[in-house]
Design brief:
Layout: H1 5-8, E1 14-16, H2 22-32, E2 38-42, E3 54-58, E4 61-65, H3 78-96
Parallel strand pairs: 1-2, 2-4
Antiparallel strand pairs: 3-4
């Protein structure tokens, strides 16, 4: 439900978003973007264009992907998913250093 993510993740310092639904992705980002939590998400993980993958940082949120491709219009390409998830994991580990 919108507006409840902060309560649900109240004991978390880092939140990793992994939703397929655009609505759910948007909701969790909006709910947590003004908190002190580190939020890591993905957008655009379908298709085979690995070169287009990058990280966008907006406040406490880091989003990894190509920001274009959609699973309903593109194949799911496991190597690209591996790259995106590795980049997300690196962001989490960087923030765990303290």
């Amino acid at each position: 439900m919108p507006g409840q993510a902060e309560a649900v993740f109240s004991d978390c310092e880092i939140v990793v978003e992994g939703f397929d639904s655009r609505f759910s992705k948007k909701m969790i980002m909006e709910d947590l973007c003004m908190t002190d939590k580190i939020v890591v998400g993905a957008s655009g993980i379908a298709g085979s264009d690995i070169d287009g993958v990058s990280v966008k940082r907006i406040g406490n949120c880091s989003i990894v992907g190509d920001f274009v491709s959609c699973q309903s219009d593109n194949i799911v390409f496991p190597p690209k998913i591996a790259v995106v998830s590795a980049m997300m994991a690196a962001i989490v580990l960087e923030n765990m250093k303290g």
